[in-house]
Design goal:
281 residues; binds sodium ion; alpha/beta; binds zinc ion; Class II fructose-bisphosphate aldolase; zinc; Aldolase_TIM; aldehyde-lyase activity; binds 1,3-dihydroxyacetonephosphate; nine-stranded parallel beta sheet; 9 strands; TIM Barrel
Length: 281
Amino acid sequence: SFVSTGEMTRKARREGYAVPAFNAENLEMAQAIIQAASREGSPVILQTTLPTARYWGMDEAVAVTASLAQEAPVPVALHLDHSNSFDEVMRAARAGYTSLMFDGSAMPYEENLRLTGRVVEAVRPMGLTVEAELGRVGGKEDSAAAPKAALTDPEEARAFAEETGVGLFAPAIGTAHGFYKGEPRLDFALLGEIRRLVSVPLVLHGGSGLPDGMIRRAIGLGIAKVNFATELRAAMTAAVWETMEGDREVIDPKKYLGRGREAVERLCVEKIRLCGSNGRA
Ligand code: 13P
Ligand code: ZN
Ligand code: NA
């Protein structure tokens, strides 16, 4: 079924697991993500950034995901990842995305608060869930400029979540997009404090490259959505390389993209089990 992210993540928070959110760059990755979730009986969030939505065509991304979701025996959401444009978020909502991130984390606090609240108001009648971020996750996501990481202040997070009425909240606790240079250092005490003060499900960005133990610990402290992007891209690309290097004569995209699809599906199964969302659909 094709649904929003609110109900599935609230259930995850209540029951102590997380719903994995996977970034899909193309049809094969979307198929792999939904196939893995279907096999594992897991709710799943498929997400695209704006550059990826443009690469697909926004309407095409919705049409493909909705079609795959309607055939799937598990709840599937389509979420717009990291957008800082009110107009683009509204365009995605009208196109049929079921969930939206308005990322005003690079803006001054007051502007982030005001615009996030405006998005929540605007999409509430459509039944869509809004994710917001406060503080700054490190690393670089698609074409966005690499920001300086800054941890979230728990009191500010509480006020922000209450005043905006968001359905999902992404704190910055030391994670970064992409693979990590050196050991990642997460502030678990801060996460626990934020969970105590913020009542909506919490989102962990920058899932790629985190040791399994850290992800499990974060879920134990209230994370109910974990984002994975870079590891899926890497799995797709490695499988395509391997297939092409193994046979320089290969010209049929079904051959190498098909291998890529299998590799992404295997990775998604691993991440679903790590999040503990298998059998929770
Ligand atoms: P990674 O690329 O580190 O998995 O981060 C994904 C993410 O946070 C998408 O919003
Ligand atoms: Zn992110
Ligand atoms: Na990461």
